[in-house]
Amino acid sequence: MYEENQYSCQHCGKRYRWKSTLKRHEVFECGGKEPVHQCPHCDYRAKQSGNLRVHIRKYHTSIELQSPSPAPRKPIVNPIQHQPSNLSTNQTPVAAAER
């Protein structure tokens, strides 16, 4: 039968259903580790990035709406438009294709 919390921390005994959650606990939380995710708007710090996102949405929504938008993306360039042409300056593509 499937055991609900089958993964336990060797250091503190806390139990988890998923191995990945246990690993996150061991890396970022267990043993009194300091939070590594700093809020860019205040002194709040979180051990998990998801908790920081929730904090920002809850307490800094107006700041987020006022922040500058990300840099514009480079336009997609059609490689066909940038190939060297055998056309003279007086010819149009249609005229060259009719030759």
Strand order of the largest sheet: 1-2
Determine the fraction of residues in helical runs and give it as a percent range: 25-40%
Radius of gyration: 28 Å
Q: pLDDT average, as an integer?
A: 77
Strand content: 5-15%
**Oligomer status:** single chain
Distance between the termini: 78 Å
Give a description of the structure.
By secondary structure, the protein is mostly helical. Among the domains are: 33 residues; 33 residues. 33% of the residues lie in helices and 8% in strands. The N and C termini lie far apart (78 Å). It has a two-stranded antiparallel ribbon with strand order 1-2. Strands 3-4 form a two-stranded antiparallel ribbon.
Q: Could you give a short description of this structure?
A:
With 99 residues, the chain is mainly alpha-helical. It has four helices and four strands.
